[in-house]
Amino acid sequence: MDLRTQYMGLQLKNPVIASASPLSSKVDSIRRLEDVGASAVVMFSLFEEQIRHENAAFDHLLSSHTESFAESLDYFPNVAEEYEATPESYLTLIQQAKAAVDIPIIGSLNGITNSGWIDYAKQIEQAGADALELNIFYIPTDLMESGADIEQRYIDILTTVKSVVSIPVALKLSPFFSSIGNMMKRLDDAGADGLVLFNRFYQPDFDIQTLSVNPTLQLSTNAEIRLPLLWIAMLHGRVNASLAATRGVHSHVEVIKYLLAGADVVMSTSALLKNGVEMLKTFLYGLEKWMEGRGYESVSEMRGVMSHQNVAHPEAFERVNYIRILESFKMEME
Ligand SMILES: Cc1cc2nc3c(=O)[nH]c(=O)nc-3n(C[C@H](O)[C@H](O)[C@H](O)COP(=O)(O)O)c2cc1C
Asked: What CATH number did the domain enclosing 44 receive?
């Protein structure tokens, strides 16, 4: 069975990648991911806030009169502390991971502006990363900021990063664009090597006893695959960028669905955190068994056979099908 896959020009032994998470925070756990079959590892993100935090400390050393130093540190919280990482240790970890494993290591930067933090893209490349994933986790709280401005922000960050590195660059994106397909096409035209669909957005909850905002992170369920599945099916064959599916992969079934939709690679985090990284072996085993049963000899044969372009009834993806579903639901109730 030939599971080999290309992702952004990288040759992978299979289509299953460990997405960004604390599972990449130690060399040993990266090695473990390789042992259970991951074909590449995306490092946890280095956050813009973390880099600014370091820069603020550096600026303070240069101008010791700054009284607002402590405040500025509060303003740029040390978010990567959870991963016990500084920008320097992040780069060292990439170097160590590269020496320890044979699979590609993909660095990850998480930020929202087009300034200083982007310098780290070059350093991540120099540390040996095979590719870079940019996670632009932007929540537009300014009601005066237009959709066009926000879209331009994404394009600007991508083009700035592309101008400083020569490794492939993927964008990990949210689905919150008014025309998702058009935005993906624009990023594709602007040189994105990969589109990682979709980011799970931080959505706070309320505690009604303490009247406080509750920043909790919930692991995904497999029900979450539907939105990325739809858009991967829509985009397959219509963009040059590689397509990576992230969200809701909890068994081989989701791996298969995403590949049928047209994903080049499928990523997983929640299932591995919840059940242990051994779980990844079952994804590969289940995929091979299914392919055997269906007579597929390679992943490339099955990829995209259920994309919007290739499926026998593309209207199944479209509005008309929504109306049909509602009709049949009504009939069931009668
Ligand atoms: C505990 C945890 C930490 C994560 N850290 C990062 C991160 O540093 N950078 C990033 O881009 N995504 C991060 N993610 C998102 C995952 O990479 C992944 O895209 C998301 O969880 C959806 O995939 P899943 O359904 O397989 O979990 C994190 C997710 C979890 C659960």
From this structure: 3.20.20.70
